[in-house]
Amino acid sequence: MTAFYWTIFLLAALCRKTGGQFLDLKNITARDAFLSGTLPDGFLWGTATAAFQIEGGWDSGEKGPSIWDWYSHLPQNVPWGDVATDSYHKYKEDVQMHVNTSLNSYRFSISWPRLFPDGTNTTINQYGVDYYNNLINELQNNGIEPLVTLYHWDLPQKLKERYGGWVNDTLVEMFENYARFCFTTFGDRVKYWTTFNEPWSFVAALGDFNNDPDYTMKYKMAHNVIRAHARAWHTYDDDFRSAQNGSVGIVISSIWGEPADLHNPADRQAATNYMEFFFGWFANPIIGNGDYPDVMKRMVRESRLKQNQTVSPLPEFTEEEKVYNNGTTDFLGINTYTARIISATNETQTCHPDNHNFASACGYMPDLMGVKETIGPGWFYMGSNIFWFAPWNIRGILHFVRERYGYTKPFYLSEVGIGETYKYHSPPNLNDTWRMCFYLTYANEALKAVKLDGVDLRGFYAWTLMDNVEWGSGPDLAFGLYHTNFTHPSRKRTPKRSQGLYGSIARENGFPDNANHVWMTRQWWEWCHMDEAYAPTRHGYVEPTNNVRPTQPAPCPSVSTAPAAQSLMFTGILGILAALVAFCSP
Ligand code: NOJ
């Protein structure tokens, strides 16, 4: 029987029109069909966190301040990071929360100024070294694989004050020293390292808190970040790999830019340009040809010429640097939450929430021209104007990266998650059915990427373990599987309903075609594709009032243990539908 359904899915997959680097996911019935099966053996299921967002203990021991400590202590801000979720003291509980969720991995970041208070290796904070040693040992004792990020945006404030931050070339060497220290100190137990988390976000959106609307500094920052990444990778490759046998990657974020009309070359080009500015800026030097994407070099130059600037602000890599950059990753971490539909346009775009133009017209990619971003009907709101529910973006982006860059190394989905806005002092809603639907569908898309598209995907990390400090938004934008009580000094954590469902997917390594687990996930699947699951936003954008999440949590359907035969029938019907649609579409 299983073989029968597999055949149907395979046919459906084969029959989809291939769009080269753009996976054709326009057939919504086929796209959204449930797929049963498991992820490869050894697949890593985890959560991801970041030091500033959870640790607290901002000046404990001899820790130096980071640029985020500086920012959050400005008079107009609330220093939520001072205590955060108090993981500096509660790391054992963090680990137990992984155990209780049946997870086998944890992605966390090391705070550079916790180890090197002034950013340099002249002074080392032994308390910080002890803290990370304890955390890593605790993980190891509980059979949980650490995946460690070296830089999740918390630059030592001293490096900002002394050198101006990433805009200064000196940072490349400083980062190499810091990375070397981490490899030396923790590399006997840490086998998965990533250098930078989401360079696009901390360069384009944050810019080290510098005001740089014309991007002269940001292009320079990115240049140094890429050089620092390559340096850290070579350091590991030359001096640590043979003894430690680990791997070093980078985490790049992207919105999946899907062409509005796959058959329209102008839309395809616009979507390619969009992806190159978003993803390719950092990916092309590392997994492409060692250099910035050609289209980016051309468009930055042309757009500056229009402003009578004759020199492009995009720095150039030397030939030697291009060779040095190229191939400097053992795996790619992809953070992806959402998608955009991209079409070509000659009209100037304006930045407004109703336009959903997150990146192109809102100052984040100022030299990108001719691109209109929008979202589809029924993509529901996920707590912020950036994030709209589009689970298939997982398949879209993984396929794009593989095809466009000829990338054949492993992928990890290093962050996938859904936020909700609420006021931290309000009572929590632990019955987060929308988040259950989110993990059910996004994890199922991960399975499809492996089974239908043949992607070498090795891990899935939920963002995030517990409600934490969402940067400038503080605790009012919450992504956790556990609720954190920010009104309580001990930051009590309580599991939400989604924690149980995510744990069950992790325990079963996906969606095996047996057991009650199948029935449970199928029933939820049905529920999640009903309008009530996300009402009223499912039919389009509803302007959030006072920044409060417009969707009220839906009532829970009861979970029954009906016979597996019914669930198989459900899959069968979906499979047949998928196949029919795939066959019949022109
Ligand atoms: C990406 C970032 O890596 C993480 O720090 C942030 O909290 C989430 N996205 C949600 O915005």
From TrEMBL:
Alphabetical GO biological process terms: carbohydrate metabolic process
Endpoints of the signal sequence: 1-20
Source superkingdom: Eukaryota
GO MF annotation, one: hydrolase activity, hydrolyzing O-glycosyl compounds
Any Pfam family hit: Glyco_hydro_1
Similarity section: Belongs to the glycosyl hydrolase 1 family.
Annotated protein name in UniProt: Lactase-phlorizin hydrolase-like isoform X1
